[in-house]
Structures are given as structure tokens and as C-alpha cells.
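User: Can you predict the 3D structure for this chain?
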Amino acid sequence: MNKLFYLLLNRTAKVALLFELAKFIVIFPTIVYFCRMKKIAVFASGSGTNAENLIRYFNIDHPEKQIVISLIVSNRPDAFVLERVKELQVPSVVINNDSFSPPKDRNQAVFPLLEVLATAKIDFIVLAGFLRLIPQYLLDAYPNRIVNIHPALLPAYGGTGMYGKHVHQAVIANGEKESGISIHLADSQYDHGRILFQVRCRIDFGETPDSLAQKIHLLEQEHFPRVINDWINGKLPQ
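Assistant: Here is the predicted structure, written as C-alpha cells:
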């Protein structure tokens, strides 16, 4: 009787062990995905203050967030962002217009930019002062994984030509009482796509484009890294 009880107990234990092992095999890939470092490529065309802020926040100050800026992509070889990131030891690459645009031959399956991103194992793309329209092939490769920051309260003051000081000049010329920043998903139009976050600032009497730019810069520095963190971790409203 004792031997029979031992065999039954041993068989039950084996079944339970196999069941737990099967559950682990099913959920293990999900655990690995959420525990591994998420890699971001920052696209920038200008001086790169937002790119530097993101690098310092994730790569230096908060490595525990498991998010790293792994690559800087620029469409301009003279963009100062390329100088900034040298000191911060983040790789950079310049993608010229031919490499950025879709192949003229539709049968051509080679996309140089996608190859660069795949080699760097990029998970998400952040546009930080990037002045090129994102092509459809890149949107298809990174669906809902490309985000842009804009120095105004979209949908107002967005679109072609609305970047940098041009935005602030237009806002002040129209007598607006407030401005701010918008962080949104990128799509096939300039400064379009679902808005993830906005924050406002007051426009004071006698405000100039330069003084407004300083206010907007402070908002970007304060909020952009946090919103990127929340977006990647699914903490923003879907």
C-alpha cells in the first residue's frame, strides 16, 4: 500500500512539474521581451538638444528604466547633433536623401535605412527636430512605434514649414494667449497622428519668438523623457 501511494504521489508530482514547465515555456519569451533593454533611435536634423536630453536621461541618469538611446540618425552631415553625441558615446549615422527615400524600382527590396536600424536592433524611433517626412516603408516597419515632438499645440501650427522659430513667430503674430508642446505618433503627414501628450505655457505681454522658444525648450526638457518612458511601457492612454 505504501509503495502504491508513493508511486501515485510521484506520478502526480511529475505531472505538476511538467505542467509548470509548460507554462514557463509559454510565458518565457514574453518575460525576456519585457526585461530586455528597449533600444531607441533618435532622428534629428538640427542642434540636438532634445537628443542629448534623452541620452542623459536614459543612458546615464536612469539605466534602471531599461531603455537606451542606441543610435542617432540625421539627414544632414553638418547637423550639430552629430557633434553632441560623440562626447556621449552614442553611435550616429547620416542617411542621405537617396538612402532615405523609397527605392524608385518597386521590385527593389533593399532599404538602406531599415538595414541600419535592424543591425542596431532598434525597437522604437523618436523624432526630435527631424525635418523629413517619414516614408511609408518606415511606418510599416515600425507601426505605432515612431513618435514626434512638436513645439506647438497641435493641430494648430503644424505642417510644412512649421518648425523651430517659424512656429513661435506664427503663434505670436496671431495673438495667441498660450502655446506649448505636443508629443504624438508619427504618420504619413507632417505633425499629424494621434496626440499622446500636450502641456501648455502662457504667452506674456511683449513675448518674442526667442523668449517663447526658451519656454518651449524648458517644457521639452522636463516632459519629453518621461513621456517617452511612459509610451514605451504602455502607460499612456491607448
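The CA atoms of residues 12 and 198 lie 57 Å apart. Confidence is low (pLDDT under 50) at residues 4-8, 28-34.
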